[in-house]
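Q: Could you write out the predicted structure for this multi-component system? I'm mainly interested in how the pieces pack against one another.
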Amino acid sequence: MTENQIKDTVFTALKDVAPEADPSSIDPDENIQDELDIDSIDYLNFMMGLHEKTGVDVPERDYAKLATINSAVSYLVARVG
Amino acid sequence: MAEMIAPIAVATGGWPKIAKSPTDLRVQPNLLDYAATRTSFSWEEIRHELSGLPGGKGINIAHEAVDRHALGSGSYRLALRWLSKKGEARDFTYGELRDQTSQFANVLRSLGIGKGDRVFALMGRIPELYVTALGTLKNTSVLSPLFSAFGPEPIKQRLTIGEGRVLVTTPNLYRRKVAVIRSELPKLEYIILVGKPGEATDVPGTLDYHTLMAQAPVDFTIPETDPEDMALLHFTSGTTGTPKGAVHVHQAVVNHYMTSKYALDLQPDDIFWCTADPGWVTGTSYGIISPLLHGITNVIDEAEFDAERWYGIIQDQRVSVWYTAPTAVRMMMKIGIDVVKDFDLSSLRFIASVGEPLNPEAVVWGQEAFGLPIHDNWWQTETGGIMIANYAAMDIKPGSMGKPLPGIEASIVKREPDGSVAEILAPNTEGELALRPGWPSMFRAYLNNETRYNKCFNGGWYFSGDLAKRDEDGYFWFVGRADDVIKSAGHLIGPFEVESALIEHPAIAEAGVIGKPDPVVGEIVKAFVSLNSGFEGSEDLRRELQGFARKRLGAVVAPKEIEFQDRLPKTRSGKIMRRLLKARELGLPEGDTSTLED
């Protein structure tokens, strides 16, 4: 997967939990939860969605490393096969 | 959520008692002899441990929390240590907090906001929230905190019911959640925006917090405050109707003090951290008021749950007493004990939890992870403070909420067919958990709703709406809710509020909302909807409805799952049977369906 494809995947996974949101409109270095009104349950579902879509296993202790669009993309880029 | 830890099992028995030997505890607990303290306890006496306003002018929460400690060298003691999302720390001494809260009280006064006027706060956990809260109380105005993850609809309802004259919020929250409803709030006179320090906000029709504060004097004398003057307005949800505004008065502070002394065991050198958001009652009673009453340092973290960050905070801030919630504990359990071992958490001496029943696995996990069991306790918005608790010196039966605090009489009761109320004295028998009215932080009203308030009382008892049992040793055990209110991540959500928002969508004919059990957060909000003719239940529509609900209600209240059903089960009188929806969802027996329409 290219970086752009991964970014699209992150957007899709976010829209799965927050269909009304426009992830491309937010500052990619700001906290996703604050910017898109994502609560802790949504965030867990977002993490699981990413796992399903990319095959990357994100251990729970790493969840906080995917708190912004940019950090999520770089985390996945480094691990996607 | 697919991967799960062991399901929540809150049941009596099965788990060995955790025996305590008070002499082994690092610090001698405030509540050492439960029976003796209960016998000798008097509210009058505990009240003397507080100061009261100078000159016998009553009792004011902010004076007890802030001003009385900010005398002489006490003003240099650390009151708040605030940790920002980005990792910076800001400290507030008692002296600084006194000055800033006085300034905020002067801001309100200069706007003509006075005694009894409602000031709403809608902010994340930023320092200005704490200044707003305590400054409002100083001014004898009424603080009503709102959770910043609410959507416009819950915010509008609460501001309307509470007749808010002032709202303090941030430019971002204003733009996203308040601007769209402002024209529907004629009683809301002032909106004060907290922008970044040094950058004045510039939004038409609003005031700038930092500009107002800079102009306000630091001297403020708290006006005479009657113990029964309204201080706090906390919203809570019922099964039906709009949210209810539970009114608390200034002398609730006696209860805040007593409970944090006995149930949380706060002592003079503690560093305390309550992880709850002040948008809910725990985050106000214990996240703002209680630690300050003891003159200790209160740690505030702006960020959301993140296990490693949390352990880092306990380690670096040397947190000694930690008050958290079952959802957080269960997330920590999922992440695993290995992570805990990377940190030095030796400062911790007492851990407590509230929000929903703490399952026995979690109590015991605390012992493995932190070397300390987690002490569950029970209370609710209406009670204003902890009512039933596991104390530091008391043996724990994992899964039990503990025993009633000194000064609190709790029992299990049932309503007899003739309308009278009977206490259930036989052990391990299910009934409704009830309290004898009269403790200082008991709610005094549901604002402008006497009927619903009166319904909570019967036969000399306050009915909590929770079903519970009491065992042969006097420990209380939670069984379930007596109504349909949903408890998700410790927050109460009224199904009616969710249903009302959903049916405003043109596709939805009817909606029934339930709490679907979830091993981490307790329950998630699930909606069943039937559609108007001309609409098909497609994935696209499901997503549209989800987005629609989230935009109106916000993430915490909106349903996490929406399922289409051709027909919702209803009684012959047309009421949607949530109980049946829930039984079907869980594959449980449907119970009495005699009222079901044909």
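A: Regarding packing and overall arrangement: Residues 1-11 of chain B have pLDDT under 50 and may be disordered.
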